[in-house]
Amino acid sequence: MITMGQEDMPAADVEQTLDQRSKPRRKTRAVRAGNLIIGGGFPISVQTMWKEPLAKESLARVREEIESLSLRGCDIIRFAVPDIESADLLGVLSRISPLPIVADIHFDHRIALRCLDYPIAKIRINPGTIGEEGNVREVVAKARDSGASLRIGINAGSLPKSLENVKDQAKAMFEASEIEMNVLERLGFHDVVFSLKSSDTESTIRANILFAQAYDYPLHIGITEAGPLVPGIVRSTIGVSALLNRGIGETIRISLSTDPLQEVITGVEILKALNQRGTGLAIISCPTCGRSTFDVKGFLDEVLNGIHYQGPGITVAIMGCMVNGPGEARQADIGITGAGKMAVIFRKGEIVRRVSYEDSITAFQEELRAACKNE
Amino acid sequence: MITMGQEDMPAADVEQTLDQRSKPRRKTRAVRAGNLIIGGGFPISVQTMWKEPLAKESLARVREEIESLSLRGCDIIRFAVPDIESADLLGVLSRISPLPIVADIHFDHRIALRCLDYPIAKIRINPGTIGEEGNVREVVAKARDSGASLRIGINAGSLPKSLENVKDQAKAMFEASEIEMNVLERLGFHDVVFSLKSSDTESTIRANILFAQAYDYPLHIGITEAGPLVPGIVRSTIGVSALLNRGIGETIRISLSTDPLQEVITGVEILKALNQRGTGLAIISCPTCGRSTFDVKGFLDEVLNGIHYQGPGITVAIMGCMVNGPGEARQADIGITGAGKMAVIFRKGEIVRRVSYEDSITAFQEELRAACKNE
Fold first, then answer.
1. How confident is the model at residue B15 (pLDDT cuts 50, 70, 90)?
2. Which of A62-76, B58-72, B244-258, B287-301 has the weakest average pLDDT?
3. What is the mean pLDDT of chain A?
4. Is B365 on the interface with A (CB under 8 A)?
5. B12 — contact with chain A (CB < 8 Å)?
6. B6–A21 CB contact, under 8 Å
7. What is the rounded distance in angstroms from the CA atom of residue A166 to the CA atom of residue A160?
8. Chain A, 94-153: which have a CB under 8 Å from a chain B CB?
9. CB-based contact (8 Å) between A284 and chain B?
10. Per-residue model confidence as pLDDT tens digits over A176-217
11. Residues of B in Cβ contact (< 8 Å) with A290
12. Which B residues 153-192 touch A at CB under 8 Å?
């Protein structure tokens, strides 16, 4: 029974089609943000944005939470800076933060100028909200003196007035980036990352392809306002992976209407799934069904909690029963599978332990720690 | 500043590259599963799997939960059937279930035979676990009599022994599907859906492309054992959308180590994001930041709870502040944005109401219900 033509493709083309998924990365300039380098062939970085206003009392807690985001794979973190007081608080935080800090400025460029009195690594401005060209010139002059870089963050939801009537959203965003680029290039300033984001995946992809074809500045990519957790992860994964598969994107931000940790985890997982970040644990775990003898979800929560391994990639399989369990667990670097009244732990294809369910968490944690150390 | 060659692509090619994302769907046979048709140009269906053993006392509750999964977009649901007693319970459920039921059988084909005494819509068997050919023959004979269809579910973790040493996992899965297909075709039985799944995204994609090139049976697609919620959604989205973008896949199952509802939501969201399911609400919501005047996450939880709209697509924008808020909310069918001490509700670009934050949830729910009715 042969298909009716439209999918006929010689076997060699299958390989070629799949090869396109790992297209070589675009060559870009390197732009420094504190101790992080964006572009220039450096690893693709993951960022998030803090979601609460800063207060003096909360700075120590915020610093700790940044530390913990960093352990989960976050490379750089951005804060909204709505006023001068927030700029001063962020400035204090930038002196103690374990990650480079980006200040996000709209409406009043004087807030950006105040941020640049501190070791803030990067300033994000939006051409649609920053006002006249003179404002940008002042920010550039001070950024150059202090060694900070800029991000020009174009959003389809806040384009400059002159472009509001351009019907093709992707072209409007691309043109907005060119207008701003011209201003910066006239000033001889090139330490700039660009972003072109829309909540429409298709427009975002197209705008970024247009930009990547024409210019060599690094791109910060993401789907803006992607939505609540599940739909947000789905839409972000589709948009971001479509760009990364074309070799486009030097730093990524996943925008979700939930906490920054989920944004970071999603970003890191996208990079891992596309073989762009080999570090850490790759978890294979079964969805469980009426056949499972093993509480996979509870086990996962328990075992993975507190393990922040950042070394070479280790595949961990957590399986509920005997159908696919031993097969998957055997192929993984380390695996466990329920088997009747016992659980069986594998390391690289060899059974290393048989334990009771009560002992399984402790035993598996020991083996996992040992596996992480050995890599 | 022009890039260094490797991404140079004439503008026409950008359009072409993007066109590939919506490749026409492969033509396949139509296979009936109860009142659902898989393949044959019918809409791509979403399925999930029940995660607990069945018990007599729980059947009424399970029926209700199936009803609620159906309201969220689930089209068909599968149950593990480990023994004859479970087959009888599932049989009772199949008479009252609002969705077609699939029985998942391993190791003992007599359980499949018992299921076929009831209006169970489809039987899934795995060539790696079902034993000798005679077993399959018996199941086919009875399925033909009762009008049930089959799914041949190949898993890389449980291949037939004869293929365990084939190094290329994708080819091993493809060969397993052909061996089983030969058995069924000799019996003249064609009401069959196939699946070829691995926890490795690349192998899964390749195996399904090989199958789609050669045969016209509908494909059930998914990444098996994709993992915990966030990484599982990311890996499933990458794998499933890569296939759907090639026109491959007639029914999808997202395997997550969490509850069936999240699997259904993820499946539906993937179809929506790829314009394969136009119904329901598309949510654009901002991730919020220190600038937000509006509790977007709380608002989302409150407003979307209990709205199970399944009509034509409606875009809903829920935005925190004045930066992108009005722009996004204006482009959506219905939107709300925080604006100083008030919230502003838009319908198709027009401000329809200004309300206080306290009144905003009720007001927005009214407008959303009205918008859903009007479509």
1. very low
2. B287-301
3. 87
4. no
5. no
6. no
7. 11
8. 104, 106, 126, 129
9. yes
10. 999 999 999 999 999 999 999 998 889 999 999 999 999 999
11. 50-54, 79-82, 86
12. 155-159, 181, 185, 190
**What architecture (CATH level 2) is domain A25-273?**
Alpha-Beta Barrel (3.20)
- A-contacting residues of B 215-244, CB under 8 Å? 215-217, 224-228, 230-235, 237-238, 241-242
Range scoring the smallest mean pLDDT among A22-26, A313-317, B359-363 = A22-26
CATH topology of domain B281-374: Sulfite Reductase Hemoprotein; domain 1 (3.30.413)
A136 vs chain B: nearest CA distance in angstroms?
Answer: 18
- pLDDT score of A13 more than 80: no
- Taking only residues 285 to 304 of chain B, the set having a beta carbon closer than 8 angstroms to any beta carbon of chain A reads 285-292, 296-297, 300, 304
Q: C-alpha A16: how far from its chain's center? A: 27
The reply to whether residue A234 touches residue B202, judged by beta carbons under 8 angstroms, is: no
Q: Does the pLDDT of residue B11 top 60, yes or no?
A: no
pLDDT recorded at residue A330: 75
Q: How far is A125 from chain B (nearest CA, A)?
A: 12
Contact of B67 with B77, CB cutoff 8 Å: no
Of A100-114, A309-323, B325-339, the range with the highest mean pLDDT is A100-114
Average pLDDT of span B257-275: 92
CB B101, CB B89: distance < 8 Å: no
Strand A314-319 with A281-285, pairing: parallel
CB distance B266–A230 less than 8 Å? Answer: yes
B287 to A263: CB separation less than 8 angstroms, yes or no: yes
Query: Average model confidence (pLDDT) for chain B?
Result: 87
∠ Cα A85 A86 A87 (to 5°): 90
Please name every residue paired with A345 in a beta bridge, in sequence order, or none if there are none. Answer: A336, A353
Tell me which residue in A24, A224, A238 faces B324 most closely, judged by beta carbons: A224
pLDDT value at A113 more than 50:
yes
**Does residue A3 have a pLDDT over 50?**
no
Residue B155 near residue B224 (C-beta atoms within 8 A): yes
For A293-318, how does the pLDDT look when each residue is reduced to its tens digit (9 = 90+)? Answer: 777 777 777 776 656 666 667 888 88
CB atoms within 10 A of CB A105: 26
- In percent, the amount of chain A with pLDDT more than 90 equals 56
Beta bridge partners of B343: B338, B355
Judged against a pLDDT cut of 60, whether residue B57 lies above it is answered with yes
> For the CA atoms of A7, A12, A16, A19, what is the dihedral angle to 10 degrees?
120
Does the fold of domain B281-374 match that of domain B25-273?
no
Residue B95 sits at the vertex; the CA angle it makes with B93 and B101, to the nearest 5 degrees, is 60
Q: How far is B41 from chain A (nearest CA, A)?
A: 13
Least confident of A51-55, A193-197, A285-289, B135-139: A285-289
Paired strand residues for B318: B285, B336
Helix, strand, or coil (residue A123):
strand
Give the closest of B24, B228, B297 to A283, CB-based: B228
DSSP 3-state of A87: helix
Interface test with A, best of B225, B236, B328 (most A CBs within 10 A): B225
Identify which of A27, A157, A324 has the shortest CB distance to residue B327: A157
Task: Give domain limits for chain A.
Answer: 25-273, 281-374
Q: Do the Cβ atoms of A3 and B216 come within 8 Å?
A: yes
Chain A: closest CA distance from residue B165 (Å): 12
Alpha carbon distances (Å) from A328 to A86, A133, A335, B195? 51, 59, 8, 17
